[in-house]
Amino acid sequence: KRAITQAAALVLLGTAAGLVNNAFSVNGTDPFRKLEEVPVFENGSVPITETDSHNHDGICLLDLEEFREMVDAGYPIIDARTSDEYKSGHVPGAILCDYFEMGRYLDFVLPRLDPDDRIGVYCGGPLCDDSEMLARELYTMGYKKLCVFKGGMEEWREAGLEIEHGAEEWS
């Protein structure tokens, strides 16, 4: 009986410590926040051209060709991978915003984004969900025209496209 009481006390203490840490962490989340539904569009359902940029509100999933059009058109592109992955090679002009360290990057990233413009987001590859999770977070912050390249850096490299190396100038 004493062991059960001690175990319960440890669980409660651990839970309290975790909640306090979350509350004061720059990357902490509000466990009581209500996530809004984010519309997600499949490949090709949202044109990338300037004239059509006002027609979508949500997250569109892009293939390599569509994502490359965004990069070539000069839209802001966010790399949701870690700093080390970013340094080892990223899409030219991409802005680093590690999804799991998002709080560290937002003061630098958000001023570089326009809520009325398209924003591209990518991560490591087709099995990585960090780009979509970051896009969902940006959506809740008022950035409503988000495009996720699900092929990520893996597909970009395999296609032999240009890659930049090195850290962001501020990191």
Précis, in short:
With 171 residues, this protein is an alpha/beta fold. Helices cover 37% and strands 12% of the residues.
List keywords for this structure.
171 residues, six-stranded parallel sheet, single chain, alpha/beta, 37% helix
Major sheet size, sense and barrel closure = 6 strands, parallel
Across the major sheet, the strand order is 1-2-6-5-3-4
Rounded to an integer in angstroms, the radius of gyration calculated over CA atoms is 19 Å
Model regions low in confidence, pLDDT < 50 over at least 5 residues: 48-54
Strand content of the residues, in percent? 5-15%
Distance between the termini: 53 Å
Give the CA-based shape. Answer: elongated
Oligomer state equals single chain
Number of strands: 6
H/E series: HEEHEHEHEHEH
Count of helix runs: 6
Helical amount = 25-40%
- Overall mean pLDDT score? 85
Task: Kindly name the structural category.
Answer: alpha/beta
Task: Explain what you see.
The protein is α/β, with parallel strands linked by helices and about 170 residues long. It is built from six helices and six strands, in the order αββαβαβαβαβα. The chain has helices at about 1-25, 65-75, 85, 100-110, 130-140, 150-160; strands at about 40, 60, 75-80, 95, 120, 145-150. Strands 1-2-6-5-3-4 form a six-stranded parallel sheet.
